[in-house]
Design a protein that fits this description.
The complex is a heterodimer of chains A (1043) and B (594). Chain A has 1043 residues and is mainly alpha-helical. Chain A contains 45 helices and no strands. In chain A, helix 10 packs parallel to helix 12. Chain B has four domains: 41 residues, no CATH class; 202 residues, no CATH class; 78 residues, no CATH class; 186 residues, no CATH class. Chain B starts with 5 loop residues before the first helix and ends with a helix. Chain B is mostly helical and 594 residues long. In chain B, helix 3 crosses helix 4. The chains are: A mainly alpha (1043), B mainly alpha (594). Chains A and B meet through helix 26, helix 28, helix 33, helix 34 and helix 36 of A and helix 13, helix 15, helix 16, helix 18 and helix 20 of B. Chain A: Interacts with RBL in both the nucleolus and nucleoplasm. Binds to NOC2.
Chain lengths: 1043, 594
């Protein structure tokens, strides 16, 4: 097989080639003919025995030769120079430009025929020249670069050859380039004569010349696949298709073909141009020429690839969205698979984030995320690129939003470079934030009243006069994305750097806290909490802000409710000031009284968790309102003496005193009604005072934003101590003041949790049960997310006995792969009967009863039909009588239902009629997939409300997850990898402890094993694991529990 | 199907069941048309037979106003009457073709004769006289509706003058029941069982046709009479003899249908009378009757809701009477209610899921709202005595869903209604239903004050959705605030003596204060201010009392007895205040109705 006809044609020039080299060359030929790659040990392992024996000798030879060559590079150079000059003389008349532009004529969809133009002349020239010794075209392996590497190895023997960096080197390069061209021509000729004679090839060639576009493309593909070096013209033709400005349909087809070809052609390293090669030391023998050929080819390929990338970039900016998408995909594809031109590719990919079309922009986002998943090392580079993209002038908000969104989705870890990356990210975020705010400033300066639609929410601006104006949608979204990003990245910043960030950024965050948008506020509070928990400095200001946030009606309506509750829990648990915790608890209870059941449950559960870590709070439940003074209470209320209105309680004394005091307050505030100016002044003065205390510069804002002006007034009056005769006893007797702005001064620790009394009468059974549980002095045990489980939709789903369709979670971030799995865990319909009544969750009890009735009634009716003996009837009657008085007895229903089966049907039928069959249609109407599709589209729409919510929730979930991680870390576990298992252990222990445990209606762990396994895999990759839903759901609870 | 070939027809019969069914349905109509026309043109037994046959088919889908239904019973009538005819005197021979009522050429029934008949029946329970009387009664009932004299050429009953006419009817209606009973030897209070036992009584066999005839004629009268007083009187008298209907299930069904129809469509008194009948029926007879009453009424009620009517004040009566009926057998109604509420929930779910216009419209339809209204009232009427917890829970959830389905000032009325319901449920059941946030959200409606004062009252709108231009009116804003105050007042009034009232009211008061600051309308500000003051004084009061207590929150019993004494006397200023607001709201509602 290795019958290389070595020296027949190159006899004159290479007389120095000896027979041993010929044999060596043949052995190399053998190696190169092997399909396997590279000049590595596989070559030694793989071939059959005979070959290895054969090889051993050449190996030695090679070593010899290497030694030889080592000795004589200089002389070689000298020789070469001479040769080069000779060669140059030979090609003297060929213009240099020609070589620089290997493709002068962009022949569209045709190989440039050798019969045209000066190229032909050149080739004619080449024809006239003697043939140089060269590797045979037919011997090319499937990966040319392996062959090239082999030749390199052969020529230089694996030494590193420094590239000469002289000026005159260029000249050498030019010469060699010409030589390379000649060699390539010769090579192509060789290919044409050897292989091109085959029938297949002929057909292919004819297809190239006269075929449909598809044919031509395929033909080109085949040619290039056959031997890329010899068929560079085919490659050029394909490139021409793509770069051509004329036909986009060619571009469509060409892009795919070309990208496939190029993926095959490109090595895993970067391509080198001729300039980077040690051309001056290349020997002028067959190997040398062959190597030169390969180098030249590589150079050509590099140029072509560059053109291809340029073309890609261009078509990614095309008008046609399809072409754009295709180009984008190809860019991503090329970028992930090959490193050549990665910079350019990356730039154009990042650039697509600014695409005016949301779809393309989010595609770019998606591709970038995937890219980082494939090549985590590229994070820094990509972030830099996005950074420079972000701060381009005149960049639209939308583009910024997409960019920030992408950045915030980057996965981070504590290992390696990631802390630095995180730091970098945070810098970017804050820099962007600054830009946004200054822009807003400028805009506001430009036109005072207008710019409402584009206004960035800048608390500084909105503070005074426009504080009621809600920041515009887009704006809050980008802010929210920014904050999400910061929240995510912050935990990964190394500690010392974190301090700097805190130092510089806290004021900004506090401004954000008071943004009119609740979500923004919560997220910044979240971040503040994170910061402060890291530093162990929990500022009063933070708590005050949080406390006031509780009052906002949107607190529970927003998509961030879950996050907010999580934040509250953490804040309350970490708080050392028990009075403040008490104040928070009271207010949480009051909020629970106002909100829909699921939030009430959330609040109660939150309190239960707080109670676990703050057992002293129990006394607010189980003890009467504390009247005895505690030593750490401020003593201002002890000062004044008062007449005993209620003399029966001895400890009441000082409270009564305060009552007197408060009478004055009441009175004065009543007076204040008439003279509101006066009050206003007082209020402002007071707020000033308070500002002094708390050094809070945004105090005024709080005052405006939260309905606490009244309270301020009262306090101010209090301070005035305008004592007046007690008209009537006032509330707030020395103790709890629900309206105080500063939670630690509310004296909430003296108030009992009377709210539980009302809550235990709540219409929703779960709320009632939870409140009852707390009242009985035990902790609530609940494995679920009340916000989801008890929501109205969940209720309706259960009511309809409908297992919600399992919707596939598409898109989404990698951090949060899925969150909708939990629906499948529900016990639906008659399945609920498998549980004992005691195990059924309170909110499901209704259904349980319902099905119990249903089951027994059907049984009974059957029985009845079967045999209707008089005794039985009598017994039934008796039964009936018994039921008459016992309302609790559900068998009575059964009895009735037994007779009513048909009636039920009738009613149902009738109702159906009445409803115009609306109900019947429901099967068709609940296409969740469709809905999802819509939602997905919305997701990409920056303006859409819905997507906002969706996106936000994703992030929430994730954030909570994150927190969990962080907390475990903070607790000193340190090792993130163990988080999961730790959590699980804790959970199982907790489970055992459960008193009122409900038998889990959820599927067993085994069913989710595959998911968990998946997680583990992911864990190994990154520290931050994306927990699958079932664990996650519990985990969320857990996060509340454990924090 | 007429044009199809034989094979095609065969195929259709085999495979297109629905077509077959429809054609079956259509046929009687067509035939009936012919029949009626024929009836007019050619009298005769032949024709009669034909008429008799069709009704059997028609029985499947009998309708109220369908004359063909009469024919069904007409056939039986003939039998009965023929029996009686044999006893009648020679008046039968007289045939008069002219039916002009004023001329009355054939004086078949004279005043004097009637008097004697009545006398005989009244005093001696003389059966032949009764038979004759019933024949006349029948004729009177059918008067003007039956082509008299033609259908039965050999017998013809006519009535002398309007006085006689009235007397026949009145006498029969008044005395029939008593007469039947005395003939059968029953007391006035005999039960259904006794009636059923009559089967073995030989007297019954002879009397049965008479009773049947009486009912049939009466039903006809009720259905056809134009005069409200007659109907009303008839219904009243009919009530007494309802027990006899146990023997005639068909007639019973018919009566139910008629009564339901009257109940829904009739005037106030008739409606009431009809309801009383229905109630009696459901009380006297077995559960099946109760069900059919309930279902029919329910259906009719909901159907009625769709029809925009001028007198919408009757709807509460309908609802209340239906509730009353349901309350008779709570357990049975319970299952009906749960089925119905499931339907409501289904619709709600659909609306929530799709948010498309039709689904939402469905929620806002009068039908849906009235259905909710019905069950809310049912539950609140019975929740004290029975365990309706599941129903309560589900309906509260549904109402909450409806209230939050579409948020916006345009749906203010619906929301107010929802909160009313919740308040109602909460008050009657004693459970806590959080409404404050729902109410207070109404304060946030962004309305402008620049709109000129609108003349119309909001309540004039029958639709749930308000027209857009109203939203800007000052009137609307006032209405918003007044509703808020009213709803909150109801809510607070319920809990005003509860130990956790101070905490309950804290946040609403805060939000109201905020609104008070923000608002620019002086009139509204004053109202709000006053409300805040009252609530605060209430808070203080409870707080003061609470400070004295010695028990802890987990002592539920003590907490429940807390301030029970104070609750009894409604002299507390804020209680009076709440009451005044509620009364005022009621007053304005009433005023608006008028």
């Amino acid at each position: 097989m290795s019958k290389i006809k070595p020296l027949s044609k190159s006899s004159q020039d290479l007389s120095l080639l000896t027979s041993d080299i010929a044999s060596f060359a043949s052995s190399i030929g053998l190696a190169s003919a092997l399909p396997s790659s590279g000049f590595n040990d596989t070559d030694f392992r793989k071939p059959a025995k005979s070959k290895t024996q054969k090889r051993k000798k050449p190996k030695k030879d090679q070593q010899h030769k290497d030694e030889d060559e080592e000795g004589e590079p200089k002389s070689n150079i000298g020789n070469e120079k001479g040769k080069d000059f000779g060669a140059r003389k030979q090609n003297k008349d060929a213009p240099v430009k020609q070589t620089l532009q290997p493709k002068p004529k962009p022949g569209f969809l045709s190989i440039d025929d050798e019969s045209t133009g000066y190229k032909k002349k050149r080739f004619d020239e080449f024809k006239s020249l003697p043939k140089l010794p060269l590797v045979k075209a037919s011997l090319l392996s499937s990966e040319w670069y392996n062959d090239a590497a082999e030749f390199e190895e052969k020529v230089f023997g694996g030494r590193k050859v420094a590239v000469a960096n002289k000026e005159d080197f260029k000249g050498v390069v030019e010469k060699k380039r010409e030589l390379g061209e000649r060699l390539m021509w010769q090579y192509a000729e060789d290919f044409a004569t050897s292989k091109g004679k085959g029938g297949d090839m002929k057909m292919v060639i004819s297809a190239q010349k006269s075929g449909t576009v598809a044919d031509k493309i395929t033909a080109f593909e085949i040619m290039v696949g056959e031997n890329p070096i010899a068929n560079m013209r085919s490659l050029d033709a394909l490139l021409g298709m793509v770069t051509s400005k004329v036909g986009k349909r060619f571009a469509f087809k060409g892009l795919k073909a070309l990208s496939e070809i190029l993926i095959r052609l490109l090595p895993d390293r970067k391509l080198k141009s001729l300039l980077q090669r040690p051309l001056n030391i290349i020997p002028e023998n067959k190997d040398g020429y062959s190597l030169l050929l390969f180098w030249y080819w590589e150079d050509c390929l590099k140029q072509r690839y560059e053109r291809f990338v340029t073309a890609l970039d261009e078509s990614s900016k095309d008008m046609l969205p399809e072409l754009k998408d295709k180009a984008l995909k190809t860019i991503y594809f090329m970028l992930t698979s090959k490193s050549e031109q990665e910079r350019k590719l990356l730039v154009s990919l990042v650039n697509k984030l600014g695409d005016p079309q949301n779809k393309s922009a989010s595609n770019a986002d998606y591709h970038l995320t995937n890219l980082l998943a494939d090549h985590p090392n590229m994070k820094a580079v990509v972030i830099d690129e996005v950074d420079s993209f972000l701060f381009r002038p005149h960049l639209g908000l939308r583009a910024k939003y997409h960019a920030v969104n992408f950045l915030s989705q980057i996965r981070l870890s504590h290992k390696g470079e990631d802390p630095k990356v995180a730091k970098r990210l945070i810098d970017v975020y804050f820099a962007l934030f600054k830009v946004l705010t200054t822009e807003a400033n400028r805009k506001q300066g430009a036109d005072d009243k207008g710019a409402a639609d584009k206004k960035k929410s800048n608390p500084k601006d909105t503070k005074q006069e426009v504080s009621t104006d809600s920041p515009i949608e887009l704006d809050s979204r980008i802010l929210s994305a920014l904050l999400t990003g910061v929240n995510r990245a912050f935990p990964y910043v190394s500690t010392d750097e974190a301090d700097d960030i805190i130092e510089s950024q806290t004021p900004v965050l506090f401004k954000l806290v008071h943004s009119a948008n609740f979500n923004v506020g919560v997220q910044s509070l979240m971040l503040l909490d994170k910061i402060s928990s890291k530093n162990k400095i929990v500022s009063d200001r933070f708590y005050r802000a949080l406390y006031s946030k509780l009052l906002l009606p949107s607190a529970m309506n927003s998509s961030k409710a879950e996050m907010f509750i999580g934040l509250l829990l953490r804040a309350m648990k970490n708080d050392i000031n028990i009075k403040r915790v008490a104040a928070f608890s009271k207010r949480v209870l009051q909020v629970a009284l106002q909100q829909p059941p699921q939030y009430a449950c959330g609040c109660l559960f939150l309190l239960s968790e707080v109670l676990k870590s703050r057992p002293p709070l129990w006394k607010m439940v189980v003890q009467r309102e504390s009247v005895e003074e505690e030593e750490d209470i401020e003593h201002f209320e002890d000062v004044i003496e008062g007449d005993d209105v209620d003399p029966n309680k001895k400890a009441e004394n000082d409270e009564n005193v305060v009552e007197v005091d408060h009478d004055g307050v009441e009175k004065s505030s009543r007076d204040g009604d008439s003279s509101s100016d006066d009050e206003e002044a007082l209020a402002i003065r007071l707020s000033d005072e308070e500002d002094d205390n708390a050094s809070d510069d945004s105090e005024e804002l709080i005052r405006n934003e939260t309905p606490q002006l009244e309270e301020v007034m009262e306090v101010s009056n209090d301070m005035e101590k305008r004592s007046q005769p007690p008209m009537r006893p006032s509330s707030l007797p020395g103790g709890y003041d629900p309206r105080h702005r500063e939670p630690s001064y509310c004296n909430a620790d003296r108030a009992s949790w009377w709210e539980l009394g009302v809550l235990s009468k709540h219409a929703h059974p779960s709320v009632a049960t939870m409140a009852g549980t707390l009242l009985s002095g035990t902790n609530i045990v609940y494995n679920g997310n009340p916000l989801n489980d008890l929501s109205l939709t969940a209720f309706l789903d259960k009511f309809m006995e409908k297992k919600p369709k399992q919707n596939t979670w598409h898109g989404g971030s990698q951090i949060e792969p899925s969150k909708k799995l939990d629906m499948s865990n529900r016990v639906i319909g008659a399945e609920i009967l498998s549980l004992a009544e005691g195990d059924v969750a309170p909110e499901d009890l209704v259904f349980h009863k319902f099905y119990v009735n249903k089951m027994t009634s059907t049984k009974q009716s059957k029985k009845k039909k079967k045999k209707k003996l008089p005794e039985e009837e009598a017994a039934e009657e008796l039964y009936d009588v018994n039921d008459g008085d016992g309302g609790e007895n559900y068998d009575s229903d059964v009895e009735f239902e037994a007779g009513d089966e048909s009636d039920n049907e009738e009613i149902e039928n009738m109702l159906d009629d009445v409803d115009d069959n609306a109900v019947e249609e429901e099967g068709g109407e609940y296409d969740y997939d469709d809905l999802d599709g819509v939602a997905g589209e919305d997701d990409e729409e920056l303006v859409a409300d819905v997507s906002d919510a969706e996106m936000d929730t994703d992030m929430d979930m994730d954030l909570i997850d994150d927190e969990d991680d962080n907390n475990v870390d903070d607790d000193g576990t340190g090792d993130g990898g163990d988080d999961d298992s730790d959590g699980d252990d804790g959970r199982s222990k907790k489970k055992k402890k459960e008193k009122r445990k409900r038998k889990s209606p959820f599927a067993s762990l085994e069913e989710y094993k595959h998911l968990i396994d998946q997680d583990e895999k992911e864990d190994s990759k990154t520290k931050r694991k994306a927990t699958s839903e079932p664990t996650k759901k519990k985990k969320k609870k857990k996060s509340k529990a454990s924090e | 199907m007429g044009k199809l070939g034989k094979k095609a027809r065969k195929f259709a019969k085999k495979n297109l069941q629905s077509v077959e069914k429809r054609s079956r349905k259509l046929k009687p109509f067509i035939k009936k048309k012919f029949a009626k026309r024929n009836e007019r043109h050619q009298a005769g037994d032949k024709q009669e037979k034909k008429v008799e046959q069709q009704p059997k088919k028609r029985c499947q889908e009998e309708e109220f106003q369908d004359i063909a239904i009469d024919a069904v019973f007409g056939k039986d009538d003939d039998e009965v009457l023929r029996d009686g005819d044999s006893d009648s005197d020679g008046y039968l021979d007289e045939l008069v073709n002219e039916t002009d009522s004023d001329i009355m050429k054939c004086k078949v029934l004279s005043r004097s004769f009637l008097a004697t008949c009545c006398d005989m029946v009244d005093k001696e329970q003389y059966v032949p006289a009764l038979v004759r009387l019933l024949n006349w009664y029948r004729a009177a009932c059918q008067y003007g509706h039956e082509p008299s004299g033609i259908a039965r050429p050999n017998i013809y009953y006519d009535i002398e003058d309007s006085e006689t006419f009235a007397k026949v009817i009145i006498f029969v209606l008044q005395k029939a029941d008593h007469t039947f009973r005395s003939i059968l030897g029953l007391s006035d209070s005999s039960t259904k069982e006794k009636i059923l036992k009559l089967k073995n009584n030989p007297k019954w066999d002879s009397l049965k046709p008479l009773v049947k005839s009486f009912f049939r004629s009466t039903l006809h009268l009720v259905k056809q009479a134009g005069d409200l007083e007659i109907i009303s009187f008839t219904l009243t008298q009919l009530r007494v003899s309802i027990v006899f209907l146990a023997a005639f299930p068909d007639l019973l069904k018919k009566l139910i249908k008629i009564s339901v129809h009257l109940w829904v469509t009739g005037e106030e008194t008739i409606s009431q009378q009809a309801f009383l009948i229905l109630k009696d029926i459901s009380m006297v007879f077995n559960s099946e009757c109760f069900d059919s009453c309930l279902i029919n009424m329910y259906k009719a009620f909901l159907h009625d809701c769709d029809i925009p009517k001028a007198n919408s004040e009757q709807r509460p009566f309908l609802r209340d009477s239906l509730v009353e009926l349901c309350s008779q057998d709570v357990q049975k109604s319970y299952t009906k209610a749960s089925v119905s509420i499931t339907q409501l929930a289904k619709l709600l779910k659909m609306a929530l899921a799709t948010k498309n216009k039709e689904a939402v419209e469905k929620i806002h339809s009068g039908e849906y709202i009235n259905c909710v209204d019905l069950w809310v009232n049912f539950i609140s009427a019975n929740v004290q005595d029975c365990d309706l917890q599941p129903l309560l829970y589900t309906i509260v959830q549904v109402i909450n869903g409806v209230a939050q389905l579409i948020i916006g000032p345009r749906y203010l009325l619906l929301r107010v209604k929802c909160i009313h319901w919740l308040n109602h449920l909460s008050r009657t059941s004693g459970i806590f239903i959080p409404i404050a946030s729902l109410v207070l959200d109404m304060l946030e409606y962004k309305t402008t004050n620049d709109g000129e004062k609108q003349e119309q009252k909001l309540e004039a709108v029958s639709t749930v959705k308000l027209p857009k231009n109203w939203l800007k009116s000052q009137n609307f804003q006032e209405q918003c605030i007044f509703s808020v105050i009213e709803l909150l007042a109801v809510h607070f009034a319920q809990w005003s003596f509860h130990i956790s009232f101070p905490d309950l009211a804290t946040i609403p008061v805060m939000r109201l204060k905020k609104f008070h600051e923000r608002s620019t309308m002086e009139g509204l500000k004053r109202v709000v201010k006053r409300f805040i003051e009252q609530v605060e004084s209430n808070i203080e009061f409870v707080q003061r009392k609470r400070d004295d207590v010695t028990f802890s929150p987990n002592d539920q019993q003590s907490a429940d007895t807390f301030m029970q004494l104070e609750k009894q006397n409604a002299n507390a200023p804020y209680t009076q205040y709440y009451q005044s607001i509620i009364d005022k709201a009621l007053g304005t509602n009433k005023k608006k109705k008028k």
